[in-house]
Amino acid sequence: MNNYSFKMWPKGLSLCLVCVIALSGCGNSSKDAEPEWVTKLNEISQYMQGDTLIDVYFKYNQLVNGYEVTGRWRPFNKDCETGPVLMNFHNQETGFEFQYFFPFYRSYDTDGVTYGKEFKGHKQGDIHYFNYTSPETLDCLKERNGNSPLGYYSPFQFLDIDFDGKDEFIVSDWYIGEGGNNYAVYAILDNGLKRIDYIPLDRLSCVDRIDLKERTITIVCFDGTCDIAEFYFSCKNRKDKITEIPRFYTGCANRFDFEKYNDELGCPFVLDSIKEDLNKVEGHHAIYEINGNKIIRVRGEKQGTIRHGRW
């Protein structure tokens, strides 16, 4: 996902292919007179101008983290599952409001409309009501990622992913690939959303393991089934650049962006260790630990012989 600008609005301003299960919440359509929330979305116009796309509207039946959530979505054609979206989040208790805009939006819920049995094409002014799918909803990836708090079917969620005591706003790209979905993380500020793009929060996916209790994130990267690398991060202030880097066995580990990592001193996650698997038929594993500015290989043996407390 790219980085886009966002703006807060003051109170009162009018404005898997991986795994497929049946969930309630694919949406209901309504052809009633235009609701107030639709009028409000149309008045927030700075993001949605300059094209001839039709407008499709949706609202979630439940409050999500205290927010009433509505959306104005513009599919690229009458049969398309993707298009620009403007979503408005209004806190029912405090009146606090923010908007999210993305030019290529697709979600589990909009797919439920586009690929529904009764679908005959999007029409101007269509209105849909969705049931929000909780991040706790079970899916087949939960067995792989240690029951990650990231929701496979949730189009967005609120989670303290950087362990600072405040929830971040997290959006799924609904990629539904072999590794599930990817996630963009935003800080909710008084004057807008700000994309968090430091490692590892710039590369979260469904297969990653997030331990909220231990305050750790393990990023899992793979290229097919025989080239896998895992990067273990803990939440603590980053003070050292990594300048002594070995040649890894796997392409996944060799592609890690150490230059970007080194440019982000002071960020709240530190790379502690790396594990890589190459060619599972032969069962080669290697484990590396980071010691100051060095990456040191501490294990590199055949399958079944490696022991390491973190892995």
What is the structural class? mainly beta
**Strand content of the residues, in percent?**
25-35%
Distance between the termini: 30 Å
Mean pLDDT score: 86
Order of helices and strands: EHEEEEHEEEEEEEEEHHEEE
Characterize the overall form: elongated
Total beta strands: 17
Low-confidence stretches: 1-25, 302-311
Largest sheet: 6 strands, mixed
Helix content: under 10%
How many structural domains? 2
Number of helices: 4
List the keywords.
2 domains, elongated, single chain, six-stranded mixed sheet, 311 residues, mainly beta, disordered N terminus, 17 strands, six-stranded antiparallel sheet
Commentary on this structure:
This protein has 311 residues and is mostly beta strands. It folds into 2 domains: 1-207, no CATH class; 214-311, no CATH class. The protein is built from 4 helices and 17 strands. A 6-stranded mixed sheet has the order 1-6-2-3-4-5, with helices on one face. It has a 6-stranded antiparallel sheet with strand order 12-13-14-15-16-17. A hairpin with a 6-residue loop joins strand 2 (56-60) and strand 3. Mean pLDDT is 86; it is low at 1-25 and 302-311.
